[in-house]
Structures are given as structure tokens and as C-alpha cells.
Amino acid sequence: MRLGWAGRRRQDCKRGSRLISTCPLPACRRPHPAQGLLQVVGPGRSAHRLVAMTRDPSGAAARSLPPGVQVVGGDLDDPRSLQPALAGVSAVYCHALSKDGATADPQELVRARHLAAAARDAGVQLVLYNSSGGRGCGYGISQMEQKHQVEDVLAAALPTVALQATLFMEELWKRYTRPGILAGTFTWSTPSDKPLQLVAARDLGLAAGTLLADGGGVEVPGSGLRAIELAGDALSPAQMCEAFSKVQGIPVKHRRAPAWPFWFLARDVFRISRFLTERGYRADVAACRAQFPGLLTFNDFLVSTSWADPSRTFEDGIAFSESKLPSTGGKSLSG
């Protein structure tokens, strides 16, 4: 996915550079993007030194990190705490600025401004930000549009790579979807034959790590923003049912539910359904898989998360089995 922008510039993160992964929430339960990042640039896998920033350096998220990752305190709601945390940092990977919610959280933009100003003042060379695909689609999806505003806030301050997610595979683990699938019915509001582009949340971190690995440069256009729409697979609901059936050992059928009730219950969900039905994401799946070895296919995701085990729940946290994950190929394709 080498895109030929005019006036682009290369942001170098030399071997031994100090990188930081930000997790602004006080308790990030199983932060999947961080897992993907660690798979590529974690201790013993890269010459970079990885630092994790969290509001609570003694909390569960910090304790779950492997030895060799430095933990520092920093709160994106408290700009004064960011300067010491960012001191000496070459690149920032920001994988969240708000919690999941039915609509956009205005505080997400406030935190983006705090991070942009602090990173610029600290001399950070590059920010990688987990965003959303579908930029400019015109469907009025508040969460999607606000993430694109965050991209602009960051890029106005310093070179930024927006890792734009397609539909997260993890969404299917949630309690409004997975129990029915395990019982044999995939209730979903888009057409059975309309492909959905999919990505595992873990793989946004893997993509960030790949771009930074082994001291390679990351090319950013003159505008300051490089956007990469990410997908590891593309399957229709009917094809997803085949994958569910394979791992569960029972037939699974797609039932297309009407989307209109969401207009009254959760308007962004209604708009997302329309977007997926009428337009959809536009990632180049083959290019993504070539540039980022180790991206999960949908079947990889189901197998590596033990999807068919009914004792596991989304609320308990999705755990990936390292032995079932594909290899990253040991190859950096940054820049």
C-alpha cells in the first residue's frame, strides 16, 4: 500500500527510539490494539523501547503488560500530566480517546487537542491514531465523523497516520449478537450477499507496530495526514455463517432484521446499517494483507479467540490464543 503523494515526507523512528502507547482509560480490559502492537515491537521483538501511558500505572492494564514495557502516568484529561510522560518520545500510538458508546463523546475532541499540543511541544515526530474508515461518506454517523475530526486536530499539530478501522470482528462477540449465533441464527440487518469488510481490533496495533518496526521510516504527505483504511477480510453475512458453522459444528443461518427500529432506539446504529448496506467501507483488503503480514482473516479470528466456547463472554474479555495466531512474517514494510 505504497501511495504516491506529492510532497510527502518520511518520519524516521531510529533503532532504540522511545515509543509510547496511550491508553487513556483507567481500566482498559484486555486492550486488544496494544496486544497487536506488542506482537511486533514488544520487548525482544524490536530495537524500540516501548512505554505505556495510563491514568493508573498500578492498575490492571499496567500489570498485564510484559516485563520490559515501561509504564508512566498520564491523563489526557489533565494536560499538565502529559509533558513529563511524553518527554523523549519519538512516536505516539493512540488507540483510544473515549470509551465505547452509542454516540460520539465530545470529550474525545478535547483529549485530542490536549494530546496534539503536548506531543508537538515535546518534539514527538509522529502520531499513529486508531480512527474509523468511511471518511466523507455523508451518512451522519456521529462517532465516525468525530474520529475524522480528531485526525484533523492531530495532523494540524504534527505528522499523523490514521489507521482507519472497518467493521470490528469483536462486535460479533457482544451479547446482542453472539448468543444467537451460537444457537444457529446470525441476526444482522444487512443483505446476505453484501460483503462486509472486517478487521480485528488487535490488528490496528499490529499495523502500527509494522509501520514503526526496525527503524523504518513512515511516509506522510505534505498535508500532515496519511490515512490507511484497514481490513483483514471481506465476507458477506452468508459467508460469515459458513465460517460460524465450521467452528461451531452446527448449521448457522443469516436472518436479516429490519433496521428501522434503530431509528428510534439508537440513531447512529441505524445510520451505520444504512452505510453498510448502501456503501460500505472501501479498504483494499489484498493491499492491507500484503503490507501488514499477520492480519487476521475472519476464520483466524474465530479460531484464535475460541469463538465456539460458550463459557467465554465479551464481558470477561476476549483472549487470543498466541499459538493459533498467524505469523507476522518477521518483515517490516514500513513507508
Automatic annotation (TrEMBL):
Pfam families: NmrA. Residues 47-258 form the NmrA-like domain. The keyword Lipid metabolism does not apply. SUPFAM superfamilies: NAD(P)-binding Rossmann-fold domains. Keywords: NADP. The keyword NADP applies. Belongs to the NmrA-type oxidoreductase family. This is NmrA-like domain-containing protein.
